Amino acid sequence: MSPAGVRLDQLLTEQGLAPSRERARALILAGRVRVGGRRVEKAGTRISPAAHLDVMSDPNPYVSRGGLKMAAALSGFEITPAGWVVLDVGASTGGFTDCLLKKGARQVIALDVGHGQLDWGLRQDPRVLVVERCNARELTPALLKTLLPGWDAPLDLAVVDVSFISLGLILPALSRFAELSRVVCLVKPQFEAGRRQVGHGGIVRDPAIHAEVLLKVAHSAQAGGWQPRDLLPSPITGAGGNQEFLVDFHRGQGPIPAPFLAKVQSMDREKA
């Protein structure tokens, strides 16, 4: 063993406090790991094997905080996914996927451009089809069938939670699935706003910028054949405290619906 100690994520796994390195990293990032009573939030921190480790209990019933966001969307948009086949774009640890399964989804395709992030329990669930190292911008029905041999189920819903890329580049790809009529997206202002609109630490605090971002995403979606029907603020903030928003898109053409515009404009009138 190195005199510098063992990586915290590795030590958690070795001591049976996490089923996998992926889950260990998620626990650490969530701030749930204590070393000698002190919270440590970096998976690569070197720890003595003799150190006392604790994993704090989590009131979140899902594998990540994303599950709480998806639960809010399903409730707020009155979506009942029981028996549905859902495409989860940007699945990451699997918070959206976990929530959808707990709400009765028959099958979830967990797609991500990265790899090795999905919770181990979800990865082993027969209802979850894992697609990794796949850029959603390039997604087509033919490509998905190639990546999932034998799969040929129509999609009832798509959900999207992506970072470092605009939703305007993702939604056109989802239009290629002719049977898909509804998409729920998590809008992250820090990845949609202009560079000068993002404050220190990557935080967007101005409600006027939030409103501008939501309209930008709505117009981009329209170009891909999607109409914004409703929106709600995420019940929990994103990385660094960013306010995020959930938007319900339906396939369709025409002007942006007045109720959606009214909600956006109400944000614009708020004071930062």
What structural keywords apply?
single chain, 272 residues, alpha/beta, Structural Genomics Hypothetical 15.5 Kd Protein In mrcA-pckA Intergenic Region, Chain A, Rossmann fold, 2 domains, 7-stranded mixed sheet, 3-stranded antiparallel sheet, 10 helices, 31% helix, 19% strand
Shape: globular
Q: How many runs of DSSP E, i.e. beta strands? A: 12
| SSE class | alpha/beta
End-to-end Cα distance, whole Å, is 52 Å
Largest sheet, order of strands side by side?
A: 8-7-6-9-10-12-11
**Topology as H/E string?**
EHHEEEEHEHEHEHEHEHHEEH
Characterize the biggest β-sheet.
7 strands, mixed
Q: Count every helix, treating DSSP H or I runs of 4 or more residues as helices.
A: 10
CATH 2nd-level architecture of the largest domain: 3-Layer(aba) Sandwich
The total number of structural domains is 2
Q: Low-confidence parts lasting 5 or more residues at pLDDT below 50?
A: none
Strand content: 15-25%
CATH topology of the largest domain: Rossmann fold
Helix content: 25-40%
Task: Determine the mean pLDDT.
Answer: 91
Topology:
Layout: E1 6-7, H1 8-14, H2 21-29, E2 33-35, E3 38-39, E4 46-47, E5 53-55, H3 66-76, E6 85-89, H4 95-102, E7 107-111, H5 120-124, E8 128-131, H6 141-147, E9 157-160, H7 171-174, E10 182-187, H8 189-192, H9 207-223, E11 226-233, E12 245-251, H10 258-268
Parallel strand pairs: 6-7, 6-9, 7-8, 9-10
Antiparallel strand pairs: 1-4, 2-3, 2-5, 10-12, 11-12
